[in-house]
Design goal:
With about 725 residues, this protein is an alpha/beta fold. It contains 20 helices and 32 strands. The chain has a seven-stranded parallel β-sheet with strand order 11-12-10-13-14-9-15, sandwiched between helices. The protein has a six-stranded parallel β-sheet with strand order 16-28-27-19-26-25, with helices on both faces. The chain has a five-stranded mixed β-sheet with strand order 3-4-1-2-5. Helix 11 (about 335-345) links the parallel strand 13 (about 310-315) and strand 14 (about 345-350). The protein is globular, with a radius of gyration of 27 Å. The model is unreliable at about 180-190 (pLDDT under 50). Bound molecules: adenosine-5'-diphosphate (ADP) and zinc ion (ZN) (2 copies). One zinc ion binds near residues 432, 474 and 477.
Length: about 725
């Protein structure tokens, strides 16, 4: 007898497709297959078998399966089905997210050409390398630590180049090697783990001992050694055959974290992030899917991979907004990690020095257990934070005199300094001082940022750029000047003020070239006096031991924003940046420049007590009945005109007559026009999440059944981070 299967396709449509399977062929849920679709064929994933087809419908026969095992095992299938319905996203697109690109395209689930491996020949030879060959020396150190052949893909991920390998090869220091048999990969080198400090031991004992489900919020201040705790935890609790998932916000920014894990777990560590090529993704995916006992360190989408023996999940920097996907399938990897741990009956640990209000709330209500680690590890002490009111002070490139003096003093003492500034580019505005004209993006409701290096005006929201003008396009005046501070300008000012000290800039522009961030990091790690200037990128997880001074150029951005999350995010960013100071044996100092030094939020920030601030912010959220005290969803619409976008949302508003759902809007989005599309939103809130989800799901079904103009696009954002 032939059976009927229900198949999901990688298409943005909220429906599945039925096919009959010719007799004698067996298919199971999660399996990849080829199916006829329209005039062509498509790759599909079996969602259900033994389906009773709707009567009277003539089904087409399914094509061949691509392999005889399910690409998505039952647990992954269940996870993604849950996510599709929770986030109101088409199931097909969700399921295909769990496949590497090659498999989405229908390529075979196997690796073709063998990969090259590299091995160290001569350790002592590194002394003969030229003094400035930092990266080559590091490369040799990596190979030495690995104690065996290392695959090229791994070295590439760490930012090394074939040129560096060949250069070392010519000097007879390294050589290409045979692929080692899997069991020869370097195993755990236990003795390398430094013993936990007293405070860490206490926290360690409070971490889950049982293997069933539990969710723990690890509140560990910056520099308390959360990574050390994760390492010990995994080493202690993970069985030899078990898999673990470690989610991190960014891998390329903090390659030292992966290096620390590799040092202890060797070949068991695999990585997953957007800079991998298709082959590397397929390779990692296969190891995960085959149930190898890997510890996977990955960014957001790693939470979707087909693990089969998951025994522990760690979400580092759980407050980080990059865990929430900002377009398409708008899932939160942190929340899915918790759901996944539940399904797998395993512990999940959410770690942060600045936990999200959501997680703190969950800890309060008993959903999570909170574990505190409030001492810095080693000799390090917490930095002191002072506010520097700049209202009546003259500024030089955004820096006040006292800040410049403090920088000078730190450099004099052969220490390092970090300058945090919220904006890349030279200045956020290029303005005509005669008529007041300001350069704006012709496609977005935003100003163009001035980039001096290539004299360009760029939109940071779309691809638009134009040459900077010398003469005002309005009045032809020559008095056009940059206004405000960006990283490039700070870099220039500091290089002039401290000509003998290297100034290193870390932002999206300066780190585009592969390996550039790694070479900045190694230079900082050498410990010589230098000034680091950067955006949020410098705040994320770095562990530099000789930074004793952090200067925040301007803290005021988040104080008066309309977004209800802005104060929370501001406090988190400022404390994370501050946490880069004083991580070694010397004490750290943080100077926060502001025009509002009497603002209560900044005042408590100077006290450095995150939990007290979070408590205050939670009270405010409760008083205004905002998340996490209520569930929120946003219907976002985009159209060629604002009228259309608002009109569409207004119809929805009329149609939603549920008293338990409070509706705000429709209103234009914060960025009302982006790349010539007009954007508006309708905010829905309800006391009960389940109720809101049902309302939203009915709304989606209704919108799907309607004929809408093709130029109008809508999407539902569940638990939105941006309002
Ligand atoms: P966090 O992630 O909490 O900010 P890290 O895990 O980066 O902190 O640790 C901060 C620093 O303290 C690192 O340099 C780390 O090597 C060091 N450290 C952490 N735990 C210990 C320990 N038990 N003994 C010695 N050094 C430690
Ligand atoms: Zn002008
Ligand atoms: Zn633009």
């Amino acid at each position: 007898m032939s059976q009927t299967v229900r198949v999901a396709l990688n298409r943005p449509i909220r429906r599945l497709f039925d096919y009959w399977v010719p007799e004698g062929r067996q298919l199971c849920p999660g399996q990849r297959l080829r199916v006829p679709f329209g005039p062509r064929s498509a790759i599909g994933l079996v969602v259900e078998t033994g389906v009773t087809p709707p009567p009277g419908l003539e089904l087409k026969p399914a094509g061949a399966a691509l392999e005889n095992w399910p690409a998505l095992p039952p647990e992954t299938l269940e996870l993604l089905s849950w996510a599709a319905s929770y986030y109101q996203h088409p199931l097909g697109e969700c399921l295909f997210m769990a496949l590497p690109p090659a498999l989405r395209r229908g390529q075979p689930a196997e690796l073709t050409a063998p990969e090259s491996f590299w091995q160290l020949i001569d350790v002592s030879g590194s002394t003969n390398l030229p003094a400035n060959a930092h990266r080559q020396r590091e490369l040799m150190e990596q190979l030495r630590l690995a104690e065996g052949p290392v695959p090229w893909s791994q070295l590439r991920q760490q930012g090394y180049t074939k040129a560096q390998l060949h250069s070392l090869g010519q000097k007879g220091l390294v050589r290409a090697a045979e692929k080692p048999a899997v069991n020869q990969l370097p195993s755990t080198t236990e003795s390398n783990l430094p013993p936990l400090t007293g405070a860490q031991q206490e926290a360690f004992r409070a971490l889950p001992q049982e293997c069933g489900f539990s969710a723990t919020l690890l509140y560990g201040i910056t520099g308390s050694g959360k990574t050390e705790l994760y390492l010990h935890y995994l080493q202690d609790r993970l069985e030899d055959a078990g898999q673990a998932l470690v989610l991190v916000p960014e891998i390329n920014l903090t390659p030292q974290t992966v290096a620390r894990f590799r040092r202890y777990f060797g070949g068991r560590i695999v990585v997953w992030h957007s800079a991998l090529n298709d082959r590397e993704r397929l390779e990692t995916w296969l190891r995960v899917r085959n149930g190898e006992p890997v510890i996977l360190i990955g960014t957001r989408s790693a939470v979707l991979l087909p693990f089969t023996r998951l025994q522990a999940i760690i979400v580092d920097e759980e407050h980080d907004s990059s865990y929430k996907q900002g377009e398409g399938f708008r899932y939160s990897a942190r929340d899915m990690a918790v759901f996944r741990a539940q399904r797998n009956h395993c512990p999940v640990i959410l770690g942060s020095a600045t936990p999200s209000l959501e997680s703190l709330h969950n800890a309060r209500t008993g959903k999570y257990t909170r574990v505190d680690l409030t001492e810095r590890a080693g000799n390090a002490t917490e930095p002191t934070i002072s506010l520097l009111d700049i209202r009546s002070r003259p500024l030089e490139g955004g820096l006040s005199r006292p800040a410049i003096q403090a920088i000078g003093a730190a450099l004099e003492a052969r220490q390092q300094v970090l300058i945090y500034i919220n904006r890349r580019g030279y200045s956020p505005v290029l303005m005509c001082f005669d008529c007041g004209h300001i350069a704006e993006c012709p496609h977005c409701d935003t100003r163009l940022t001035y980039h001096r290096r290539d004299r360009a005006l760029r939109c940071h929201h779309c691809d638009y750029q134009q040459p900077a003008f010398r003469h005002c396009p309005k009045c032809d005046s020559e008095a056009c000047h940059p206004v405000g501070q960006g990283t490039e300008r700070a870099e220039e000012v500091l290089a002039t003020a401290f000509p003998a000290t290297p100034v290193l800039r870390i932002d999206r522009d300066s780190t585009q070239r592969k390996g550039s961030i790694q070479s900045i990091i190694s230079q900082v790690n050498e410990g010589n006096p230098c000034i680091l200037v950067g955006t949020q990128m410098v705040a994320k997880g770095h562990d530099f031991h000789n930074i004793t001074l952090v200067v925040v150029i301007n803290a005021d951005g988040g104080l008066f924003s309309v977004d209800f999350r802005a104060p929370e995010q501001m406090v988190q960013t400022l404390l994370q940046v501050s946490g880069r100071a004083g991580r070694g044996s010397l004490p750290g100092k943080v100077l926060i420049q502001t025009c509002h030094s009497d603002h209560p939020l900044l005042q408590s920030l100077a006290g450095g007590n995150y939990l007290a601030m979070a408590k205050q912010l939670l009270t405010e959220r409760q008083e205004s009945a905002l998340p996490p005290f209520r569930a929120m969803a946003i219907v976002r619409a985009e159209a060629p005109s604002m009228e259309e976008a608002l009109g569409f949302l207004d119809q929805i508003r009329q149609q939603l007559t549920d008293d338990a759902v409070e509706i705000w809007g429709p209103l234009p989005a914060a960025l009302a026009r982006k790349a010539d599309r007009h954007r508006a939103q309708l905010i829905l809130q309800a006391d009960r999440r389940g109720h809101l989800n049902r309302v939203v799901s009915r709304l989606c079904a209704d919108l799907d059944s309607r004929r809408l103009p093709t130029s109008l696009r809508w999407i539902i954002d569940i638990d939105p981070l941006e309002t």
